[in-house]
Amino acid sequence: MSTEEHVWRAHVVRRLRERNRKECDNFKEIIEQNNRLIDHVAQLKADNLKLSVENEQLRSAVSTGGTGSNVAIATLEKKLLSQQEELTDLHKRKGENSQMIVDLNQKMEQQRIIISEKEHSLAEQQTNNNRLRAEVQLLHSSLEELKKLNNTMLDEHTALQLAFSSLEDKLRGVQDENRRLLERLMQYKSKDADKLNEENESIIRKRSAKLKRDLEDAVREPGSSSNTSTSPGAASLQRNSSPAQFIGGPIGDEDFDEATINGAMEAIGLDDNEYISARFTAGEVCENTRASIDTLKATGYLGQANPTKILLKFEAHENESHAVRWSPVERMVATGGADRKVKLWDIGKNSTEPRAVLSGSSAGINSVDFDSTGAYILGTSNDYGARVWTVMDNRLRHTLTGHSGKVMAAKYVQEPIKVVTGSHDRTLKIWDLRSIACIETKFAGSSCNDLVTTDSLGSTIISGHYDKKIRFWDIRTEKQADDVLMPAKITSLDLSKDCNYLICSVRDDTIKLLDLRKNQVISTFTNEHFKISCDFARASFNSSGLKIACGSADGAIYIWNVNGFLEATLKGHSTAVNAVSWSPNNNLLASVGKNKRCTIYSES
């Protein structure tokens, strides 16, 4: 510290000397000249005094009668006069120099005041400098402590990473063993299923042969009004249907309603194929009007007709289209695409121009969904966020950010207060729209591709994941129910209207139907040409929950009924279909795919 003070003092002295040199050197010559003038004045005073004495002596000599010195006296008088003039001039110059000295003294006093102010400021700066040096010293010590703490945390992190790697290795080993056990279990189940199928096929063949014989007997006896020649199966059929429907002449489709047909089929244990074959065999349909089984299914012979006609086709987005959803109250469709926009389309007006374009996302849209009133639309994006718009004024109301991976799905929970989102960061987050904040995070351990909620209160959240599991989350008790394992990673989920059944599209090119009351897979839908198009391909229930639709990589849309029959294959896309959505209010089907287009299908 003493060395630094010595440096500052030397610097101050050097600056003062430089200032004196600049301010005093300009007046040094004047001061020296003034000193010379003062000395000269003193000399002249002495000479004047001497001359005065000589003058007095001469005057006294003249008064006493001296005559020879008149000329000398006159000369001395002249000399005295010139000395007096010179003395006067010197006095004048002395006055000027004195005034100059006074001015210089005033300036010097001002400079002294300035120097004192500078010295005071310098003292304050030195005090501040000392204080700052002390703070720097404290910060250095704090930094050293933080470095030590950081090193400790890095060591702990390394240790945790090693432990995590070890646990991951153990997990992979357990998963491999679990996979092997599952494969063995599936093999055993497959063998059991094959045996059961063989037994069922044998029973069905016997039952079908018996039914054919009974129907042939019934046709050969035109006046049969008694039940003596009919089998118990035929008797059950007649009890569930009017005799006129089956006996006495050709019967048209208009004579049957779906409840009657289903009751008769259930009573005698027939499936759709056996029922239609029996009607052909019994001669209930004329030869020239008979249609194939596939045609009857496609035209809704056994239920509601399928939307096989292209009602509207339009280019929805600039790039690939990812999501589509019908409004619950209007004939309006919302689509989302890789061009970062959500667009609303008024299908009721057959318009190919968007009713609204909702912007705000900085990356591609992955899913869209309406609330139950159709007033709000919820969209998720690859920019790690979800957004809420109002349909009436097309304004962005909320932006939900907090995930560290792309958000794949979002649904309303406790409308319109809360929203749940699922992301590739392996978490589900529940958001309160009143405070626009995340109020709960659920750690799934695997990327979430889709999710659904069981009711408007969202008491149960069902999520489908990359690790092939369907997870169930009860938000009232904050407990997780047993997971359901699928054979491959899950691309989408959809609930029936009564929330009793769940469909799950799986990457092994199948669609699974689950009964949520048992948490069991009760049916599998597949076809040799059906291929799931991508990891976020969306399947959909129709409004009645009796039919299932899903797009394929070959550009077709496959429609099954819940009994497992493929009823229709819709063409209309030239590339893979990413998502389909069935209108909740009518029999319209919307689809989007990689060719940017949205296609609307209606009944023919």
Can you characterise this structure?
One of its GO terms (molecular function) is protein-membrane adaptor activity. Keywords: Coiled coil, Repeat, WD repeat. Residues 41-191 form a coiled coil. Pfam families: ATG16, WD40. Residues 214-252 are annotated as: Disordered. Mean pLDDT is 81; it is low at 224-268 and 277-302. The protein has helices at residues 2-63, 70-220, 232-240, 243-246, 258-268, 272-281, 293-298, and strands at 309-315, 321-326, 332-337, 342-346, 356-358, 365-370, 376-381, 385-390, 396-401, 407-413, 418-423, 427-432, 437-443, 448-453, 460-465, 469-474, 479-480, 484-485, 490-495, 501-506, 510-515, 520-525, 539-541, 547-551, 557-561, 566-570, 577-582, 589-593, 597-602. The protein contains seven helices and 29 strands. Among the domains are: 93-157; 307-602, YVTN repeat-like/Quinoprotein amine dehydrogenase (Methylamine Dehydrogenase, Chain H, 7 Propeller). Strands 14, 15, 16, 17 and 18 form a five-stranded antiparallel β-sheet that branches. The protein has a four-stranded antiparallel β-sheet with strand order 1-29-28-27, with no helix packed on it. It has a four-stranded antiparallel β-sheet with strand order 2-3-4-5, with no helix packed on it. It is rod-shaped, with a radius of gyration of 54 Å. It is α+β, with helices and mostly antiparallel strands and 604 residues long. Helix 1 packs antiparallel against helix 2 (70-220) and helix 3 (232-240) runs antiparallel to helix 5.
